[in-house]
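Reviewer 2 asked us to include a model.

Predict the structure of this chain.
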Amino acid sequence: MGVRRAVDIAIREATCAAKATCAKESGSSVCTLGPLVHNPKVSADLEALGIHSIDESSLTVHGSALCESVIIRAHGINPVTEHKLRKEGYRIIDATCPHVKKNQLKIQELSNAGFRLFIAGEAEHAEIKGLLGYCEDSPFCEVTGSADEAREKAAVLYRKNRDAKTALLGQTTISEEEYKNIGEEIKKYFPDLQIIQTICAATSDRQNALHELLLQCDAVIVAGGKESANTRRLFSIAQQSGKPCALMEDAAQIPDSFLKHETVGICAGASTPDSVIEDIEQELIRISHLA
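Predicted model (structure tokens):
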């Protein structure tokens, strides 16, 4: 997954920066532009290695004590921001997820070809904000977070240009069902809509595995950071099943009510460490013996 890859890259860079032989090349410290991962335990481990998360406003003056090397996280960033950082002299380590990078280039290609673009996802998510930077010259590039919103925005475009060439791309962590429903609403106005497959295969695999897990258990725990988009989507799927479910970041958050269930399933977000999953599993086993 892109997030795990980004964490590995960050650890490698921090290790290199800590060595005297690499100090000149890697800079005095390593920073990430925004949280590298939405998981408290992993974030704490990265901080302990000297990898600090900072926002764009903290990088306006080069040569500050914050860092010299900047890691672009898996979500990617706006190309204007990246150009600005390079121009100011920062050493850029691009850890953008390959799937996200592919989507960025595809949006740019479609925008240059004159397509009106719909982007399915969360408007405030970092991945979406980065993608929007690749279609700034497009006459129409709109984010839609639901089927209802897609229908409304498609209607607006239809009134302006019913012959428009249109395409739909999505956040890599969006669920297949959401993406399908959004596409169907846009097609009511633009039957020739090009739907680009942008969902990460690993994300789909996790969501499909959860659907199967829900058939086999009485309740389910979704392990992962509460700020993680892919973890929240897993939790949403679990909630829609109607079965008891909980989103938790560590074993201490297991609800007392889960003691009454005979079978409890566990699934995890992409960035959840194996150690957290194992801790939750062991705690479930422990409290089941006490019940």
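The CA atoms of residues 75 and 127 lie 4 Å apart. DSSP finds eleven helices and eleven strands in the chain. We have added this to the supplementary material.
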